[in-house]
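Chain A, query sequence.
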Amino acid sequence: MVLLIILVLTLVFVAGASTYRLVMLRRGGTAALLRTLPARGGQGWRHGLIRYDEDRLVFFKLTSLKFGPDSTVHRQGLEIVERRAPQGDEFDIMTDDIVVVAVTDPQNSFELALDRGSMAAFLSWVESRPSDRARRTRGGPA
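Chain A, predicted structure.
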């Protein structure tokens, strides 16, 4: 009987977490693939949605039950390292109109795979960030 109660509670929790994650994903965002570097070949890519905040980009994996974002890329200190087309076995999950961009922030290194329109939005978001000098002036001494 106790085992049955534990099983039912586990199923209720998983159903609730799945529903919550579905609601989070349905709020909108940009379809993207993301992987943490270093990675080899076409391994490590995760399908999901990205959303832009004022100072960070958050990534929600489609297959995760986590309540918050699965990865975060911080806008300040973000550097675009490389921009390329998909290569080799990456074509198994990507099409010709995808652009892959390697980025680093102070904490991590990632690769993002976006279509051309989404890449333009991403680059605009990166380029429109306030400079370090403007942030120090607004917030007082750093």
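The radius of gyration is 18 Å. Residues 30 and 136 are 31 Å apart (CA to CA).
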